[in-house]
Write a structure and sequence with these properties.
alpha/beta; 4 helices; 25% helix; globular
């Protein structure tokens, strides 16, 4: 699926959960920035989403210099925090557990399965939040450097799949 830009889709101020399980307003993810890049991660159960998050971890200072950046997954905060710490991630991460956030934004199937991707939001001076772009993640997409480098290899990725650890 091709990225959709200039959506101009108003977004309500959802309640998300921080890693301590406290409710946090979606609007607070912007901090002092007017733009927010938000990654929709499928959580601990997905090795692909873990690989994408590992990659974002390395560029988060660059991203945050221009816009707010955060990752949201459906994992309960206690599971999310333990996994986050085990990966040494540095970005802000929140849980959408118990909210309709992922479903309303199109990152959850009708069967309740999470889907990976990115949403970009703008918050105007009056505080109205608008989703201005979105895209979905999958093997070969432009959001993960690994696929492009594997594409240079003879035979490409040859059925390769990410793992949590390699021997």
């Amino acid at each position: 699926m091709k990225a959709k830009k200039n959506l101009k889709q108003a977004v309500k101020d959802y309640n998300l959960l921080d890693q301590r399980g406290r409710k946090i307003k979606f609007s607070s993810l912007f901090g002092k920035k007017e733009d927010l890049i938000l990654i929709h991660n499928m959580g601990k159960a997905c090795t692909y989403c873990t690989m994408w998050a590992d990659g974002f971890n390395g560029v988060v200072p660059h991203l945050e210099n221009r816009a707010a950046f955060a990752v949201v997954s459906p994992d309960p905060p206690v599971v999310q925090k333990k996994f986050y710490n085990s990966r040494n991630w540095k970005f802000k991460m929140f849980s959408s557990k118990g909210s309709s956030f992922a479903k309303d934004l199109g990152y959850e199937t009708k069967a309740g399965e999470p889907q990976p991707g990115v949403s970009v939001f703008y918050k105007n001076k009056s505080g109205k939040m608008i989703r201005v772009a979105k895209d979905y993640f999958g093997p070969g997409d432009p959001y993960c450097l690994v696929w492009h480098l594997f594409g240079l290899l003879p035979g490409g990725p040859k059925g390769w799949h990410p793992q949590y650890k390699y021997r």
